[in-house]
Amino acid sequence: HRIYNKIMDNKELDIASEKEKLKIELLEWFNTLNNHLKKIPKELNEQLELLSKIKINNYEDMNQIQHKAAIISVAEKFQIEFPEINKWTWHPKQTSNKNEGDLTGYVNDKIVLNAEVTTSLKPIGTIDKRIYNTLKGLSKKEGEKYFIVQSDEMLNRANTKINKNKWDIKTKKFEKGCP
User: Fold this and answer.
1) CA dist 111 → 33, 104, 148 (Å)
2) Which of 18, 29, 52, 154 could potentially form a cystine with 149 if both were Cys, beta carbons 3.0 to 4.6 Å apart?
3) pLDDT tens readout for residues 69-96
């Protein structure tokens, strides 16, 4: 049932068509959530069971949709900031590979930019550990490196890890959503 099975792991990014697909995916997500909420049980155990179903059926898709929207938003801004880049690829499923981040910019066939994008807002628990691993992986990629966040807390935590490890990674804070 997952929407993301249809998306290739890494492909050239066509922002206009991906935004249209994103609209459809969001409608599907909201429809699924709405179906769960049509009849809310009165008993506590049944309410908890419904909550569990919602988490199973909606949580991962919600994360993937937010991640995808954030990458598209970053790509739109980076296309203006880096007009020399003539090809963008992306990993909308949060499964970057060894050479490419969530968003990778090329000039001809040479990687000139790699970016990892997170929609997490607070660097606590597993998120904090994930920041380190993501930055460590990004530090080994080619080109100019960016770690894109959406909150000051994530920006500060990422900068602390980058400075401590002396990684050549720039951080940027972008607003949530997709223009």
Assistant:
1) 40, 7, 18
2) 154
3) 999 999 999 999 999 999 999 988 766 5
